[in-house]
Amino acid sequence: MKVWTTEQEAANLKRLLSTVKSKAEFAEKAGIPGGSSMVSQHQSGNRPISLEAGIAYAKGLKVSLFEISPRLVKMVSDLPPLLPEGDTPGTNLPEFPKGLRQYPVLSHAQAAALADDGAFPESAETLDFEFGKDNASPGAFFLALEGDAMSPELREGDRVLIDPQASPRPGDHVLARNGKRQVLLRKYRVRGVGEDGIEVFDLVPLNEDHAVLRSDRNRLVLLGTVIEHRRRLRGS
Description:
Layout: H1 6-16, H2 23-30, H3 35-44, H4 51-61, H5 65-68, H6 70-77, E1 100-106, H7 108-117, E2 128-133, E3 141-144, E4 159-163, E5 173-177, E6 183-193, E7 199-204, E8 213-214, E9 221-230
Parallel strand pairs: 1-3
Antiparallel strand pairs: 1-2, 3-4, 4-9, 5-6, 5-9, 6-7, 7-8
Helix pairs in contact: 2-3, 2-4
């Protein structure tokens, strides 16, 4: 099965949505995670279409998931069985504290691999796990920070919870991938809307030794928004 690139998925989605009069109304009715802002990000290729969003698009547009993204179809077909053989939903399930959840902790390299095809590679291992409130989307993960681009507010070794379905607002911290397939954690700043109707934004470091990146001048894909920050004390 041939898998489309993020750019091809974006162009295809833009074509499918060309007859939709109101993107905001469609996003609300179809239940697109992140609303009309996320639709804009998907159409521009600034953010890959998640499985949850792909299913919502397929239902809303009354097309197959394959017509939205062959990549998502492959992702579903590669999933292991949801239950052990002979089990039925609601039986033999391990107990877990209500309202809590276990999140994987990824390195920058692992997060970059996640961005390549929209799913964390099965063969890769996580650095660790963090427990927290179950208040993020299914694909959320903690990122172990590297470098000093966001110092002094965020330090190397700190961990931030990234939610792929949380739409960024001006001033939020976001995780993005650049054209070199490197991940960057930066402050999100909106510049306006380009001639093509796509939102133009800056990725701003808090450390002035690092450069500001513009979405209309650099290949940038938004991977998620920071919704929690955990400071790692020295030696912990």
